[in-house]
Amino acid sequence: MACQVSSTPYAHLSSIIKDNKDQKECCVCLYEKDLTVVFDCNHYVCLSCFKKYSISKLNSRQFKYDANIGYSLGCPNGCSNTLLRELHIFCLMDKSNYERYKTFGAEEYVFYHQGVLCPTASCGCGLILDESNLKVRCPLPIGCGKAFCRSCKTLWTDDALQICKCQTDSQNDNQAFSYWYQLFGTRRESSLAVYKKCPGCSVNTEKDGGCNAISCTRCGMTWCWICELEFRNDCIQSHWF
Question: What structural domains and CATH numbers belong to the chain?
C-alpha cells in the first residue's frame, strides 16, 4: 500500500512529524532542524537522521514486531514503550527500502504466528498453518503449489515418501545425544543442540561457540542457552559449569 499523496509535504504524518518551533536538538546529530520526528518519550530526531536510523535497523532486521502496532521502531536512545504507531512514517526511506520494509513486516507477521515461508525462490508465500503435518503444500492460486518440509524447508520432490530425510537424520542425532548423555551428562547433551528458539520471540537461533548468554537481534532479549529462559545472574553458577 502506497503512502497517501498530499499537496503539503508530510501532511498525512502530522501527528509524528512536527515543526520544530521550540528549536529542540536532534537526539542523534544534536543539530536543530525545522522538521523532526517526535517519539512518545519527547525525543526529537531530524528527518535525515531518522532515514539513516530506519535503513540501518532495516538492514539488520532489528525492527520490532508488536501485535497491536505492527513492524516498527522505538526511540534511538532506547526509551521503552516508544514504538511509532503510524507506520507510514517509514516511507521517509527511499522507495526500494520502503518496499523491503513492507516485505519484512509481512514475514515477521508470519513468523510471529509460528508460520512458514514457502522456500521456492520465485514464491516466498507466507503460510500460517493450523495442522502439525511436516509435509506442507503451498496453496494455489496465491502460491506456487509445490510441497515442502515444514521442518527443514526443502522441497518434497517424491510424493510417495511419508517422512522427510531430516527426520531420519534427527533420529540419528537423538541416538548420538543419548550416547553423549551416558558419557558426559546433560551439559554435553545441551551443547550439541545447534538451534534453539528465543524464549522472547521464538525465532530460531544458531550458536556456534562463545558465551551461553544469547542476545536476540530480533526482540532484544538476553537469554540463557542452557535453561532457555531469560538470563539471570545465577545462570552462570547454577548450570553453566
Answer: 11-94 (3.30.40), 193-240 (no CATH)
Q: What Cα–Cα distance (Å) separates residue 226 from each residue in 6, 138, 145, 213?
A: 54, 35, 39, 9
Give the pTM.
0.65
pLDDT digits (tens, 9 = 90+) for 150-204: 878 888 877 777 777 776 655 555 555 455 455 555 444 444 456 788 887 777 7
Cβ-defined contacts of 98-106 (< 8 Å, 24+):
100/58, 101/54, 101/58, 101/63, 101/71, 102/1, 104/58, 104/61, 104/63, 104/71, 105/63, 105/65, 105/70, 105/71
Cβ proximity of 84 and 57 under 8 Å = no
Assign 3-state DSSP to the chain and report helix, strand, coil percentages, each to 5: 30, 15, 50
Cell numbers given for 180: 553423549
Alpha carbons 52 and 201: distance in angstroms, whole number: 26
Q: Which residue's entry shows cell 502496532? A: 69
Burial class (CB in 10 A: 0-12, 13-18, 19+), 19: exposed
Residue 27 among the catalytic residues: no
Euclidean distance between CA atoms 60 and 73, whole angstroms: 13
Catalytic entry in 125, 138, 164, 211:
211
